[in-house]
Write a structure and sequence with these properties.
Elements: H1 2-21, H2 27-44, H3 50-83, H4 85-106
Helix pairs in contact: 1-2, 3-4
């Protein structure tokens, strides 16, 4: 998503804005071109559609949750070697709790 917004939307629209600004003679023209740039960019990034914006937010939230628990899991596996079976029980509980949180985020 970040790649799309940066490379496919922002960069081309920024170049168009720069080209238009080379020929402006008034502040009103600058404001008009800048407003057009913002409107086009927001529309092409799908940030004006509340439903799409909500879905993007949920997906990014789930990615963050997944990354955090992946990191916890990796750290737990290192500690597991040190603690043995007791640590494995705690790890299983953490995994169950993470699954419950992810399921709740879908509702």
């Amino acid at each position: 998503f970040a790649y799309y917004m940066t490379v496919e939307v922002l960069e081309p629209n920024w170049h168009v804005l720069e080209e238009r600004l080379r020929s402006v003679t008034t502040v009103d023209e600058v404001l008009r071109y800048h407003t057009r740039f913002l409107d086009t960019t927001l529309r092409q990034c799908q940030l004006l559609n509340p439903q799409v914006l909500k879905l993007i937010t949920r997906i990014l939230t789930l990615c963050t949750i997944f990354a955090r628990y992946t990191e916890k899991l990796a750290n737990s596996l290192v500690l597991e070697e040190e603690d043995g079976p007791l640590r494995q029980g705690r790890l299983a509980l953490q995994v169950r709790e993470a699954r419950i949180r992810v399921r709740r985020s879908y509702t």
